Amino acid sequence: MDSVEGVMAAALVDYETGIVLSRRSCVDDFDVDAAARGNADVLQAELDLMRRVGVCDGLHDLLISLEAQFHLIRPIQGEQTHFLYVVIDRAHGNLALARHHVAQVETTLRG
Prior knowledge:
It is built from two helices and five strands; from the N terminus they run ββαβββα. By secondary structure, the chain is of the alpha+beta class. The longest helix has 22 residues, at 32-53.
């Protein structure tokens, strides 16, 4: 993800425990671990909601759009508990390009 302009932080996270397995941050004042733990809860809530309402489709990704940032959460297909978490600066990043790169990383991780 280093090659994607505007990426502020990225992490590989276990959403059942909230444990960050790997992280990278380009911003000193952004707590990647705290954000990843919080977004593990977001992902768990979405997956639970999908089960409760009977949505059987796979979850591709979740996008949280803030005024200054995009937060992208992408479960790794075939991995029941891991997801990629990426924070993108809206002013300097390209969401479409970041999503494309996250998809490539996800494909690589699932082997």
